[in-house]
Amino acid sequence: MAYKMPKIVKKIDKFHIISSGRLSPEKGHQDIIKALSNVKFDFLLDIYGCGEYGQELKNLVNELNLNNKVRFCGFSDDIATVLASSDLQIIASHIEPFGLVAIDGIYYSPLLISTNTGICTKILPNELIFKTSNLSEKLNEIYENYDKFVEIFSKIKAKKDDFSIEKMTEKYLKAYESLIKEIG
Questions:
Q1: Which of 37, 156, 149, 71 minimizes the C-alpha distance to 105?
Q2: What is the pLDDT of residues 50-66, one digit of tens each?
Q3: In 3D, which of 63, 58, 64 has the Cα closest to residue 29?
Q4: Order of strands across the sheet with 112-115?
Q5: What digits encode the pLDDT tens for the residues 74-105?
Q6: Helix, strand or coil, per DSSP, at residue 70
Q7: DSSP strand pairing (15-20 vs 43-48)
Q8: What are the distances in angstroms from CA 41 to CA 138, 143, 174?
Q9: Reported confidence tier of residue 18, pLDDT bands at 50, 70, 90
């Protein structure tokens, strides 16, 4: 999968947040929705993905009166443009062994935050990692100090080529070769 340049899309007036991935409880979309019900700023959350948990998430949005602030967008074949046109991408997974969503975020999102799971723990600084229990506070802090957080993330984005498919394949091959040498 080659990374491409996103289309230029006009930003919206609200703080635009993206969450993408399969709609299932372990992906944490419900945690994002609950946290956003307690923030102090106007936002629009677009959730991209499909899955069996979609109806439960829609019910939660309805229950929290967030119908005009949360959209379910299904699958997108142009995630580059989706992420580039946002203000923030959130990965709230409870379990994420690797996470191509994070690599997409490094390439395209202006800012990415994540739970303390998967590859994000290796590549994101502590300022961009959150606990689900304090996500509302983290979102308020990001909104109030947005440029500071974008600057922090820009240091990660500067190293994005380290996460290209070619580089990642090379790292996996070296790991497998090392493992084979140990076993053999």
A1: 156
A2: 999 999 999 999 999 99
A3: 58
A4: 70-74, 43-48, 15-20, 88-91, 112-115, 129-130
A5: 999 899 999 999 999 999 999 876 678 888 89
A6: strand
A7: parallel
A8: 12, 8, 46
A9: very high
Query: H or E segment at 129?
Result: strand 129-130
CATH superfamily, with its number, for domain 15-182: Glycogen Phosphorylase B; (3.40.50.2000)
Q: What confidence tens digit (pLDDT) does each residue in 64-75 have?
A: 999 999 999 999
Residue with tokens 């959130």: 90
Cβ pair 115, 94 in contact under 8 A: yes
Q: Tokens 């007036």 appear where? A: 13
Where do the domains of the chain lie?
15-182
